Structure formats: C-alpha cells, structure tokens
Amino acid sequence: MRDEFTVGIKEELAKRVGFLCSNPGCRQPTSGPQSALSGTVNIGVAAHITAASLGGPRYDASLSSNERGSFGNGIWLCQTCAKLVDSDQSRYTVEKLREWKSDAEAAAARALEQRRSPVTESEGVFIEAERLMPDLIAEMRTDIRGDKTRLIREFVLLPNRNVSFGHTKPRFEYFESEHTNLLLQMDWLEEMGAVIDITPKDSPVYRMTPKFSDWLRGPTQPLNPADPKGETAS
Ligand SMILES: [Zn+2]
C-alpha cells in the first residue's frame, strides 16, 4: 500500500516553494496556463523524501503510515528531477533532499520579501555552473556551510587524498581522483566569475569570489548581524 499525499498537502508543498522545482540546479517553473482561455498546466510532482511504500527509494520502515504521507516527508520537484532522485538513491539521500527543500523554501521567502526576480544575473550563472558540474558544486557548498569561521574561500587542487599541500592557512581541498576533468571545470568557474586563480607555484590554488561563496552558503544561513555586509569575509 502506498502512503500518498492528500491534495491539500501537495498544494502546500508547491506553494511553499513558489511552484518552482526544489532542485537548486533546476528551479524549473511547474505551473502555467493551458493554451485555452482557462485551465492550468502542472508539471510538478509532490515527491516522497522517503518512499511511499516498502521497497521504494529511501524507504524508512520506522515511519508510520501517517508520517509517510505527511507534509514533512514531501518535496516539490519537476517531473524530470522527481525521476532523477528516485533513480539514484545513494546520490540523492534523505539529507540532501531535506536540504533542497529548506533552501527552496528560503529562496521563495526571500523572493517574496525582496519583491524582485529570485534569480540575479550572477545567481543565474552559478545555477548554470551547478548544472555543468553538480558534484563539485555540491562539495563546495558542503565545505562553505561547514566552515564555522565563515572566512575560508581558498582551495587547492590535488591529484588524490594521499597528497598533501603543506598549508600555511586553512583551505578547502578538491581531488582530481574524485572529479573528472577538474582543471577543465576550473576554466569554466573562472570564466563565470566564481573563482580566481591565485596559484603561487606548481599546485593550483584558487579563491572563490565573495558572490560565489555567498551563493553557496545560501539564504538559510544569514550573515552575522554584527557584520551585515560580510566585509570580514572579503
Ligand atoms: Zn527540476
């Protein structure tokens, strides 16, 4: 038996993210008009974070039937992304989907408050970067959000985890063994204004631009009120 969402919960999931797909690399609108004078088209899906039935993706046996069909277990996605997250469970984990959901809700709230398009020009470019290189951007986002000092923006590229750089200051590390064509991805990120090449000698060292690191950190973690413009981080 499948624990489906009610119509009301589906509507709430869609409305809370402004009817946009919650995948940060997608943000596809999911609702619009039919070609006739009335009627609407919906290409959104209320997807289950943990599966609606035994054997489904990310199924959690500890949940009750009610919990499985509750608002908290749903995420609004476009049809393509709904298929994507169910086809690769090790990559699209429960934690990742919950992060997508809270980020999408925060972005929708911010768009309402600021009365402007939710996507600025540079955000649009970074969303494009995420489409091109989802794994690297996801790792960078985890690093930026995990940095309690909020000051680290430099990173070094290394062949693999057995090689160390001999850091003189805190930096993130990305490994060629874990990201295919890492140097080519850097070319793109440089051109997109996301990173600056600051290589001193042989090992490639880059610095994220303030706009890019702010975008990675996301709207859910506002800057310290004592430092509203994030000037200590630039
Ligand atoms: Zn999507």
Explain this structure.
The chain is an alpha+beta fold. The chain folds into two domains: 109 residues, no CATH class; 111 residues, Arc Repressor Mutant, subunit A (Orthogonal Bundle). The strands form three sheets. Strands 6-5-8-7 form a four-stranded mixed beta sheet. Strands 1-2 form a two-stranded antiparallel ribbon. Strand 1 and strand 2 form a beta hairpin. It starts with 6 loop residues before the first helix and ends in a 17-residue tail after the last helix. The C terminus is likely disordered. The site of zinc ion has 8 residues, from strand 4 and helix 3.
Q: Walk across the major sheet and give the strand order.
A: 6-5-8-7
What is the CATH top level name of the largest domain?
Mainly Alpha
What's the total helix number?
Answer: 8
Summing up helix and strand content along with how strands pair, one would put the structural category as alpha+beta
Major sheet summary line? 4 strands, mixed
Low-confidence stretches: 225-234
| Average pLDDT level | 87
The helix content is: 25-40%
Radius of gyration: 20 Å
> Within the CATH hierarchy, at the fold level, what is the topology of the largest domain?
Arc Repressor Mutant, subunit A
Oligomer: single chain
Number of domains: 2
CATH architecture descriptor of the largest domain? Orthogonal Bundle
Bound molecules: zinc ion
Strand residue content: 5-15%
Order of helices and strands: HEEEHEHHHHEEHEEH
Shape category: globular
* Number of strand elements: 8
